[in-house]
């Protein structure tokens, strides 16, 4: 694996490398224990993993030996040891606590490169509303800009964008804006470039060793690149989001921030030349040290600017590129994953891997970015996405549509069912978001999370835990209507049928087109949305004579106040299941599994 943030240009598959985000982080789960190694250098590097290979001779040929080579930077490594939860808590303490998204950002979101007019936006939102499908946000790509220039609006296609945003928010739908880092080189009183030239003594943009601005070709044409490693530049850039807020946008996705230039620079990389100079927060250096943290520092600039502009609201921001610690400012998504069953499988692997690198909020382009998925593939992808933190459909300009009703009545009904379940579980996702900030534990966890010594669970890559309470087994193969599910220790209930299964072991469960297997851990308590829309609790019965429970986090509102944590206990009493708060008082809950 190469450690150099890169836009693979178009769709990518499982064998493609490098990709948008690289982290010099290795998490090892073995019989002897779990540890995380962080190689604290932002420079280009390569990692070779030889797990399980047979060979003789030098140590590099022995099974289980890994090799890391960095082109420069400090020779500094951090190692954290313990259980997986202990390791991730330590990693969060080292690199920063994860940002908690606003509540609405845990609902379903819809995006497409090609929503090029207010009329198209209204048509899509009306389509969801007319079919009774929940929609939390709609994303506008570069085609809403005036000439693809960042922090502008095409006034002909969007004559009253603030009015459109208010209209949609009244229907419960937020607008999310793409933000690219490259700034078109142009003069004029309203030009972002002209304003950037006036920042600090040398301007806001990256320069070469001779003091000349580094230019590249991006969507608007010839562009300059802000140096986000300079605090003055971050302060200036963060203030530009005021224009986005005035337009009515509630959230932001950063794109093209590896950074990308369509014209090759040195070494044929489509990025800035390695000789380009950066401030690096006063240390100074060239692009070899700054490249991998360019997206991270852009996210910092945007996040901190939004906090200054709206201090009472948690920002919603996710970024295509980043580095260790990017979770402090939001999350990420898969990028342009290929449309196909391999892309579907890669989606789960990406979210699991990012969570273990400390980035708990992520998700794929549901349906894949560049192709036209057949109905079965789209529905299975949609079902997986509904149980991942960032639940967003997205497609390229040339790709097929992603609205659920475009795939026929069977897909529409399957999507309706899983959308309703996502809405019901939204309080649980919000609780997991607050717990991720407190503990470093990702929302989406591998099956071995609580039992790393179980080799069978370590080998299972086609299912995952959603928090402590749910086990989700997506369908990742075409034509399947049943699938094997590996269970950790304990009792697990099929949430569709109520049937109980005992782990550890493997069971064969039905997976008809309309649903995927989801199991609840016996003795668990879930915060859910009741039938009347109000917050409620759902408990799953523990085995007879056993107790259960857990910790839930109650959202304090849209700001930054810490969540109130509540430890609940589930037990049998006089032949019935009761849930008690920390004070011993019995709580009103819906009990299942009895």
The CATH architecture designation of the domain at 103-179 and 331-436 is Alpha-Beta Barrel
- Over all CA atoms, what is the radius of gyration? 24 Å
Estimate what percentage of residues fall within beta strands.
15-25%
| Biggest β-sheet description | 7 strands, parallel
Total count of strands: 32
Which regions have little confidence, pLDDT < 50, spanning 5+ residues?
53-62
CATH H level of the domain at 103-179 and 331-436: which superfamily? Answer: Glycosidases
Classify the helix fraction into a percent range: 10-25%
User: What is the global morphology?
Assistant: globular
Number of helices: 12
Name the average pLDDT: 95
Find the CATH topology of the domain at 103-179 and 331-436: TIM Barrel
Task: Assign the structural class, choosing from mainly alpha, mainly beta, alpha/beta, alpha+beta, or little secondary structure.
Answer: alpha/beta
Strand numbers in spatial order across the main sheet: 15-12-8-7-6-19-18
Class of the domain at 103-179 and 331-436, according to the CATH hierarchy?
Alpha Beta
Quote the distance from N terminus to C terminus.
49 Å
Tell me what you see in this structure.
This protein has 594 residues and is of the alpha/beta class. Helix content is 23%, strand content 25%. Strand 7, helix 3 and strand 8 form a beta-alpha-beta unit. The radius of gyration is 24 Å and the shape is globular. The relative contact order is 0.10.
